[in-house]
Amino acid sequence: MTKFFDEICCIQAITMAATILHKANTRGSANHGWLQSHHTFSFAGYHDPERMHFGVLRVLNDDSVKGGMGFGKHPHDNMEIISIPLEGDLEHKDSMGNTTVIRKGDIQVMSAGTGIQHSEYNKNADETVKFLQIWIFPNKKNVEPRYDQITLNQQDRKNKLQQILSPNPDDQGVWIHQDAWFHLGTFDNQISADYQIKKQGNGVYAFVLEGKFSINGIQMDRRDGLGIWETDVFNITSKESGSEILLMEVPMHLA
Questions:
Q1: Domain membership of residue 57 as a residue range
Q2: Strand arrangement of the beta sheet that strand 218-220 belongs to
Q3: What's the pLDDT tens digit per position in 202-238?
Q4: Which CATH number does the domain housing residue 131 bear?
Q5: Domain count, the chain
């Protein structure tokens, strides 16, 4: 009886969830020759008043930078900035004295706080670098700027969700000044996983990196995004071997 009751509660929670689907071909785009970028939310020359942010998730850019090219030194403040490399080598330099290279399997984070300047370049002249650039509104303003990067074991996300970011410096992954949790997973065909919301009132923005998924019965293809909120748990199911997904749990209300 207890198991049956738990299953009914789970079904009710899934049914009541609010969702919004963003198909890959509805994103904003920019082609600067050396840079091709797809914007899930309004950014630079792309403006859609219906797609300004998802909770505190402000920017989700899918960037490809040609060999030897990149972003010159530019400023940021009061934003949590996360970079997730997908292909190639991305070289980072900043006003805090950091010079590093990030590759697939690495996670990079910057708390811009009172202000930083940084540059990002494709370290290789003969291949494209691809990465996700993600901006999160912080829950604390004017903090001391901070930089960190880590390398994760990609096998730890095989057919399960691997935590890559949280609000806790002692937890797995990098940390930011926000009640947010990120997970990555790579799944074989028809493998399922349930995601439990970490903090009441948070929502999750799911982004398919490769392959196909079904989330609560909603079909998603490569580079589709789905926001889901007003639920405590939801299910993801891979529909193709090698499917890879990023889940970004964030507060739904700006401070």
A1: 2-251
A2: 192-196, 233-238, 213-215, 218-220
A3: 999 999 999 999 999 999 999 999 999 999 999 999 9
A4: 2.60.120.10
A5: 1
